[in-house]
Amino acid sequence: MTTDQAGAAPGYRIAKFGIGAVVRHRIYPFRGIVFDVDPVFDNTEEWWLAIPEEVRPRKDQPFYHLLAENAETEYVAYVSEQNLLPDTSGEALRHAGIHEMFVRDDRGFYRMRDRTPN
C-alpha cells in the first residue's frame, strides 16, 4: 500500500486523536478515552443508518472506540472524528474499564498498560 505526503494510505486521513487521548463529544454531553481507532468507518450499515440523517457522520474519516461516560453511566462508544473535540478539563475519567487498559501519569495523561505477561 502506498502512502501520500502525510504518510497516510490514499483515501485515509491521519487520525487527529491517538490511543489514550481524552475527548468529548461535540454535540452530546459525554467524554471518554480513545482505546482504538479505525481509519474509516468500520461498523454495521444498520448502526450507521440508525443515526438521524441530519447528524449522520461521513464514513471517510477516522472513527474512535471510546471508554465513554456521561453524568449517569459508563459505556463504550463509537464516534466519528468530526464529532470529537479534545477534553481539556483535566478531570480524571471514572470509567471502570480504564484501569484495565491505561495508567494515568502524574501530569494527568493516560498511556496503555504494559500487556507483557509475567
TrEMBL record:
<dbReference type="InterPro" id="IPR036623">
    <property type="entry name" value="Hemimethylated_DNA-bd_sf"/>
</dbReference>
<feature type="domain" description="Hemimethylated DNA-binding">
    <location>
        <begin position="14"/>
        <end position="113"/>
    </location>
</feature>
<keyword id="KW-0346">Stress response</keyword>
<dbReference type="InterPro" id="IPR011722">
    <property type="entry name" value="Hemimethylated_DNA-bd_dom"/>
</dbReference>
<dbReference type="Pfam" id="PF08755">
    <property type="entry name" value="YccV-like"/>
</dbReference>
<dbReference type="GO" id="GO:0003677">
    <property type="term" value="F:DNA binding"/>
</dbReference>
<protein>
    <recommendedName>
        <fullName>Heat shock protein HspQ</fullName>
    </recommendedName>
</protein>
